[in-house]
């Protein structure tokens, strides 16, 4: 292939892309579970829960994801706790996802008219029943497009995992470039592979937004 770039190099990058997808899936699923808990705390009637969850969100959003990965991978090593690169990257991105998804979903829940809550109370529904049966089904319609949009950003942010030695797509490109010394070619192919994953998700997000008529709410 071009400039010494062989099919073996391409397969190596594709393998890195597969690990990028795995890391993205782990971060999104685990972060989504934690983010749902964060959202529930943020809309809770208990002030201490709201304040505690707000502090958590501000701490995660107020510090770079790269620093969080450094602390998990290198920082814990100071105390004798060895964390594998995949675990450090997944935990860091899970914390990142939980804070942002929690805030996205909180905004969607709070965008539902207060009359929905009041009507549910008149029907004798508990707070949990109101959220589960009345509010969340409506909020889901609003939350779907921005959630998919966040997933696109999450896939691209997996590139930061390369700094802790995790062999995802960006790290794979760095390894190949160290032997070929052709950064434009190698990272250009890596960028194209990122595009192949992110572009369909972006199109899907816009399609969902049109179908769900979120912009008219």
Report what the structure shows.
- The chain is built from 8 helices and no strands.
- The chain is mainly alpha-helical.
- Helices cover 80% and strands 0% of the residues.
- The protein has a single domain, classed as MetI-like fold.
- α1 runs antiparallel to α2, α1 crosses α4 and α1 packs across α8.
Low-confidence stretches: none
Determine the N-to-C terminus distance.
52 Å
Q: Give the tally of β-strands.
A: 0
| CATH superfamily membership | MetI-like
- The CATH topology turns out to be MetI-like fold
- Radius of gyration computed on alpha carbons: 21 Å
Work out the count of structural domains.
Answer: 1
Secondary-structure-based class equals: mainly alpha
Going by CATH, the architecture would be Orthogonal Bundle
- How does the major sheet shape up? none
CATH class: Mainly Alpha
Percent of residues in helices comes to over 70%
Strand content: under 5%
Q: What is the N-to-C succession of helices and strands?
A: HHHHHHHH
Sum this structure up briefly.
The protein is 80% helix and 0% strand.
Structure keywords:
217 residues, mainly alpha, MetI-like fold, 80% helix
How is the secondary structure organized here?
Elements lengths: L6 H36 L4 H15 L3 H14 L6 H26 L3 H9 L4 H31 L11 H12 L2 H30 L5
């Amino acid at each position: 292939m071009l400039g010494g770039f062989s099919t073996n190099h391409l397969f190596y990058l594709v393998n890195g892309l597969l690990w990028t997808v795995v890391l993205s899936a782990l971060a999104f699923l685990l972060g989504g579970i934690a983010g749902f808990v964060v959202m529930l705390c943020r809309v809770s009637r208990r002030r201490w829960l709201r304040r505690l969850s707000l502090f958590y969100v501000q701490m995660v959003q107020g510090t770079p994801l790269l620093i969080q990965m450094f602390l998990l991978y290198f920082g814990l090593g100071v105390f004798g706790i060895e964390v594998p690169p995949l675990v450090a990257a997944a935990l860091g991105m899970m914390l990142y996802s939980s804070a942002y998804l929690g805030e996205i979903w909180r905004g969607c829940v709070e965008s539902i008219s207060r009359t929905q809550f009041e009507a549910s109370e008149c029907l004798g529904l508990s707070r949990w029943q109101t959220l589960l049966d009345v509010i969340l089904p409506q909020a889901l319609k609003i939350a779907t497009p921005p959630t998919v949009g966040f997933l696109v950003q999450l896939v691209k942010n997996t590139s930061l995992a390369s700094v802790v030695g995790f062999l995802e797509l960006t790290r794979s490109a760095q390894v190949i470039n160290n032997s070929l010394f052709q950064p434009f070619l190698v990272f250009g192919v890596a960028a194209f592979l990122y595009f192949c994953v992110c572009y369909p998700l972006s199109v899907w997000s816009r399609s969902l937004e049109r179908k769900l008529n979120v912009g008219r709410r």
